[in-house]
């Protein structure tokens, strides 16, 4: 987002209970378990001072300045007469010690000198986890600061957002709360539907037990989020402060000192830079740690909520829940305002959390679209938190695309979202067909009449928008809605007397269940929606349906599986890091929320990577409670090397190391942990890579596949006995991986370094190969995931699965601009041009508009055989008619590629180096010219053999300046141009090219003559 205003729409409802806040008495009746005051301790420097500073909305001249000296958490000595303040391994940061105070004074003196030189004033200062300040600066001041040797970096402030999956307008009814009339929210605010709770099972069923060897007792989890709803039953426990706690309970608007009962150990709020940027808070917010949205309460209770025997929502008992680490303490750091914050306030929260003494931080926040710069200011603060012994779990993001990962720092455990309970529901259609979707609502029993919104609306629309349905046509029926706003659709059916709703669409959407309080089943994919529309069109007035809870598992690959909204790797800024690190439950989680932002609900169902991260934060708290001397790196390694694959993918790009389990992680055998020196060097590198970091994974993106790569990993025995480990390799088809030594014996506390050499072998260039290396002893199994992509001619910052990938594999008009991944002399060959052979075909357009259904209407299939050794498959359609044709290509029942140009029948799907086998191409008339008519089109499937010999063509290579060349320099741009040796027939032709360097063949692009 360009601004800090959340684009979602939200309405507030009255809280369910009146709070006696004026008297300072909380509803829990708990006496504060520790001393409190009205503001944060002065030594954190991250306090709230400017609650009413006017500012231009969206002011963009605000900067973060990081000074060169390390902050208190990372200072290891070097300044005369000032001893080190960074804690030793296994110790806590002594943030209030005399040494810390003296060093903080030194940092303050340097900061003052820098500010004085620039004639600038700091709005917010940091010294514990970040050494620097935020300020409004002129261009001249920025330039001067960047030239100052006392300054490490000057960056423009950025906004961050809670990682919510579904921006919705779920709760629309404004009402009066006990605090007076609460407005409907500033324009663009929203309820967040992204994070739900802890260890529940399907709503209405027994919870899924999380086998854990501990409960997190004595450990403090800091939650940087939208605040907390202290009256929730998930936080209703009076507890004593654990040793080492140095924080406070900052009172504020509607947040009395009694809100901190020991379970909620401390609370702070941070809005200095938000207010400086926007001038005021969103109208639905309050200046305190109180959560008005629900997101922060949800993440906190997911990580560490106390057991709640029953969670009643809208009269329905969703069963018992508990946080992953139910005996851990929660420290609240509110830095999100209606779901949005600034990095300057986030850093203030990190600074305070580390100074307060938290041992784990949950950060379900990130940048829209993922990280695009390495080692930003937030990343620097988290590094210093790590060096101070604080484990950080962070959400991967909900963009649902490759290359959109957030929080890609190697010292942070980045968590993707997985489905761990399918929550399926079955739609049994009259006539015997069934479709499996999902639901978390109670469903009606027995057969009901089924009606399509298009048949029941007053204006012919199909989306069930408010006022669109004819009550006489939907009364008592199940209504199928091709929705645009799912909450509006459900409300309309409910208002018009319908019995239930089936929500579907013509595109795949994020698999997010919401609790509507009305019988609702949702379909998420084209494969689900198509058969439903086929049934509705064939039976417009006679359709019947039976809805039931449960299904046959066909709505997803299995459980657990990575959910489709979870952002996956690789990240945009590092070629040698695996992100995400782990996957954890992130869908249909029941946890505590804030009633004002959730239709008076105390609990609700959220989904998102926001919900996955606190599961891992809770696991880290469990391990920290059991192993007080384990570093954050040891905890991260234990969770990752003992994780297991999800169902449907073993790719580290999507699942990271897999699904963690604290029981297995409690005794990992070996740990793979980077040193502080390694991490600091990574932070300071201009273009950090990461492949040499001592992490429990190996990622080699865009490496030179014409040469071998060797990386080292250091294994430390964290067990209690000497053991011998033997290495084995799984997956990594076509790659050669060797270890030296391949077997080693290591005693407790000692380490062994292994050299791991990766050779491309027969694996294709420019494609990912993934697998794992496992070191096994008689009692332990230590798995390290590996992903490689040898760079031939096509570097990519994302994976090879998106629909635009085809454009990286081919050129047109006889040439292709490309970048080689190797340096050296080359020879080039081509298959020459193969003509595209078109055939005439037609299909019946039984209906004017349909969704894709391979067994449905308006469709025709074409069988294609791809032999072994094929370089490319080009599938195309064209038509001069009025129908809008789409193209789908399947192999073994799985969608491989599609071309869905809007209002066009000129579709093309290009598969590069396709697997051999039988393919089926479906041509679908998404819209026909007329119902019951015929669509005529041309179809072509062109297969290119790697060793084929077609119409002759000469090859010329030129550099970026157009000069002919026979050698490449890695990363430079070159053009390969094919010139036919004769006149080509007047049809499109395709050719394949490849390069040879040092005796190794590198596959090159497909090239079209047009």
Please describe what this structure looks like:
With 1010 residues, the chain is an alpha+beta fold. 15% of the residues lie in helices and 30% in strands. The protein has 16 helices and 57 strands. The strands form 15 sheets. Strands 10, 11, 14, 16, 18, 19, 27 and 28 form an eight-stranded mixed sheet that branches. The chain has a seven-stranded mixed sheet with strand order 21-20-26-22-23-24-25, sandwiched between helices. Helix 4 runs parallel beside helix 11 and helix 5 runs parallel beside helix 6. The radius of gyration is 30 Å and the shape is globular. The two termini are 39 Å apart.
Compile the SSE list and pairings.
Blueprint: E1 62-67, H1 98-118, E2 124-126, E3 132-136, H2 139-147, E4 151-156, E5 159-162, E6 166-168, E7 176-177, E8 180-181, E9 191-193, E10 220-225, E11 264-269, H3 272-278, H4 295-304, E12 312-313, E13 316-317, E14 329-334, E15 340-342, H5 343-356, E16 360-363, E17 365-366, H6 377-387, E18 391-395, E19 413-419, E20 424-429, E21 434-438, E22 447-452, H7 453-456, H8 471-474, E23 478-482, H9 486-495, E24 500-504, E25 520-522, H10 526-538, E26 544-549, E27 561-562, E28 582-585, E29 589-592, E30 603-606, H11 609-626, H12 632-641, H13 652-655, H14 662-665, E31 670-671, H15 676-684, E32 697-704, E33 709-717, E34 723-731, E35 736-740, E36 743-746, E37 751-759, E38 769-776, E39 781-791, H16 806-809, E40 810-811, E41 815-818, E42 824-825, E43 827-830, E44 834-835, E45 839-845, E46 859-866, E47 870-878, E48 884-891, E49 894-899, E50 907-912, E51 917-927, E52 933-945, E53 953-959, E54 967-968, E55 974-980, E56 989-997, E57 1000-1008
Parallel strand pairs: 10-14, 10-16, 11-14, 16-18, 18-19, 19-28, 22-23, 23-24, 24-25, 32-39, 40-57
Antiparallel strand pairs: 1-3, 1-4, 2-3, 5-15, 5-17, 6-9, 7-8, 12-13, 19-27, 20-21, 20-26, 22-26, 29-30, 31-33, 33-37, 34-36, 34-38, 35-37, 38-39, 41-55, 42-54, 43-56, 44-56, 45-52, 46-51, 47-50, 47-52, 48-49, 48-51, 53-55, 56-57
Helix pairs in contact: 4-11, 5-6, 11-12
């Amino acid at each position: 987002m360009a601004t800090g205003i959340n684009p979602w729409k939200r309405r507030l409802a009255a809280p369910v209970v009146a709070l006696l806040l004026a008297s300072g008495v909380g509803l829990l009746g708990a006496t504060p378990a520790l001393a409190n005051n009205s503001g944060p301790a002065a030594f954190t420097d991250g306090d709230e001072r400017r609650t009413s500073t006017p500012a231009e909305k969206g002011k963009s001249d605000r900067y973060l300045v990081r000074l060169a000296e390390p902050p208190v958490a990372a200072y290891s000595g070097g300044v005369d007469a000032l001893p080190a303040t960074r804690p030793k391994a296994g110790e806590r940061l002594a943030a209030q010690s005399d040494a810390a105070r003296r060093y903080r004074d030194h940092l303050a003196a340097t900061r003052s000198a820098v500010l004085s030189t620039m004639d600038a004033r700091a709005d917010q200062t940091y010294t514990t986890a970040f050494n620097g300040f935020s300020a409004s600066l002129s261009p001249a001041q920025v330039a001067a600061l960047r030239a100052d040797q006392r300054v490490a970096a000057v960056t423009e402030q950025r906004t961050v957002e809670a990682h919510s999956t579904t921006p919705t307008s779920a709760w629309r009814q404004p009402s009066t709360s006990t605090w007076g009339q609460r407005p409907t929210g500033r324009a663009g605010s929203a309820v967040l539907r992204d994070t739900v709770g802890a260890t529940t099972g399907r709503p209405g069923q027994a919870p899924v037990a999380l086998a854990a060897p501990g409960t997190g007792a004595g450990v403090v989890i800091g939650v940087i989020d939208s605040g907390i709803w202290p009256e929730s039953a998930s936080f209703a426990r009076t507890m004593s402060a654990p040793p080492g706690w140095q924080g406070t309970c900052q009172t504020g608007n509607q947040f009395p000192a009694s809100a901190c009962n020991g379970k909620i150990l401390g609370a702070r709020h941070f809005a200095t830079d938000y207010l400086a940027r926007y001038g005021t808070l969103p109208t639905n917010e309050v200046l305190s740690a109180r959560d008005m949205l629900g997101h922060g309460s949800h993440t906190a209770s997911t990580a560490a909520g106390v057991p709640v025997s029953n969670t009643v929502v809208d009269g329905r008992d969703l069963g018992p829940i508990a946080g992953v680490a139910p005996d851990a303490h929660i420290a609240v750091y509110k830095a999100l305002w209606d779901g949005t914050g600034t990095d300057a306030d986030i850093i203030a929260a990190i600074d305070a959390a580390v100074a307060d003494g938290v041992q784990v931080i949950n950060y379900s926040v990130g940048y829209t679209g993922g990280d695009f710069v390495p080692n930003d200011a937030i990343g620097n603060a988290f590094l210093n938190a790590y060096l101070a012994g604080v484990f950080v779990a962070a959400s991967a993001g909900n963009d649902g695309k490759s290359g959109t990962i957030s929080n890609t720092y190697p010292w942070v455990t980045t968590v993707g979202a997985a489905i761990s309970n399918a929550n399926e529901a079955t739609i049994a259609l009259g006539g015997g067909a069934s479709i499996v979707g999902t639901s978390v609502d109670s469903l009606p029993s027995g057969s009901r009449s089924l009606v399509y919104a298009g048949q029941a609306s007053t204006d012919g629309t199909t989306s069930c928008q408010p006022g669109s349905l004819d009550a006489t046509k939907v009364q008592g029926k199940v209504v199928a809605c091709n929705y645009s706003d799912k909450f509006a659709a459900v409300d309309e059916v409910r208002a018009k007397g319908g019995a239930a709703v089936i929500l579907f669409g013509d595109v795949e959407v994020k698999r997010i269940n919401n609790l509507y309080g009305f019988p609702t089943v949702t379909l998420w994919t084209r494969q689900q929606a198509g058969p439903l529309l086929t049934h509705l069109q064939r039976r417009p007035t006679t359709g019947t349906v039976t809805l039931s809870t449960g299904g046959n598992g066909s709505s997803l690959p299995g459980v657990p599986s990575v959910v489709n909204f979870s952002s996956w790797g690789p990240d945009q800024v590092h070629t040698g890091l695996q992100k995400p690190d782990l996957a954890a439950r992130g869908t249909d989680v029941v946890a505590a929320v804030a009633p004002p932002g959730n239709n008076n609900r105390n609990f609700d169902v959220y989904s998102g990577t926001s919900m996955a991260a606190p599961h891992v934060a809770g696991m880290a708290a469990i391990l920290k409670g059991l192993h007080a001397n384990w570093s954050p790196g040891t905890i991260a390694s234990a969770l990752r090397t003992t994780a297991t694959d999800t169902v449907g993918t073993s790719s580290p790009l999507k699942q990271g190391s897999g699904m963690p389990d604290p029981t297995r992680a409690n005794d990992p055998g070996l740990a793979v942990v980077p040193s502080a020196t390694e991490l600091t060097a990574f932070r300071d590198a201009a273009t950090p890579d990461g492949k040499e970091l001592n992490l429990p994974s190996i990622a080699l993106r865009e490496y030179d596949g014409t040469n071998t790569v060797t990386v080292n990993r250091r294994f430390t025995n964290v067990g209690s006995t000497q053991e011998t480990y033997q290495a084995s390799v799984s997956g990594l088809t076509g790659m050669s991986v060797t270890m030296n030594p391949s077997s080693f014996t290591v005693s407790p506390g000692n380490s062994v370094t292994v050299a791991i050499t990766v050779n491309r072998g027969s694996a294709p260039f420019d494609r990912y190969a993934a697998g794992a290396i496992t070191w096994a002893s008689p009692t332990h199994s230590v798995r390290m995931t590996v992903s490689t992509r040898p760079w031939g001619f096509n570097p990519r910052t994302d994976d090879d699965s998106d629909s635009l990938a085809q454009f990286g594999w081919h050129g047109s008009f006889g040439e292709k601009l490309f970048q080689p991944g190797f340096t050296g002399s080359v020879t080039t060959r081509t298959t020459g041009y193969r003509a595209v052979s078109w055939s005439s075909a037609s299909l019946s357009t039984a209906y004017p508009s349909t969704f894709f259904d391979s067994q449905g209407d308006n469709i025709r299939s074409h069988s294609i055989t791809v032999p072994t050794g094929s370089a490319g498959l080009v599938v195309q359609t064209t038509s001069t008619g009025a129908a809008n044709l789409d193209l789908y290509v399947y192999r073994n029942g799985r969608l491989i590629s599609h071309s869905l140009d809007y209002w066009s029948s000129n579709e093309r799907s290009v598969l590069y180096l396709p697997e051999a086998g039988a393919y089926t191409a479906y041509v679908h008339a998404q819209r026909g010219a007329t119902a019951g008519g015929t669509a005529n089109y041309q179809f072509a499937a062109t297969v290119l053999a790697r060793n084929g010999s077609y119409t002759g063509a000469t090859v010329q290579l030129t550099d970026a300046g157009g000069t002919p060349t026979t050698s490449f320099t890695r990363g430079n741009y070159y053009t390969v141009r094919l010139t036919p040796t004769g006149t080509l027939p007047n049809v499109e032709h395709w050719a394949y090219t490849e390069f040879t360097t040092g005796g190794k063949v590198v596959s090159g692009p497909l090239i079209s003559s047009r």
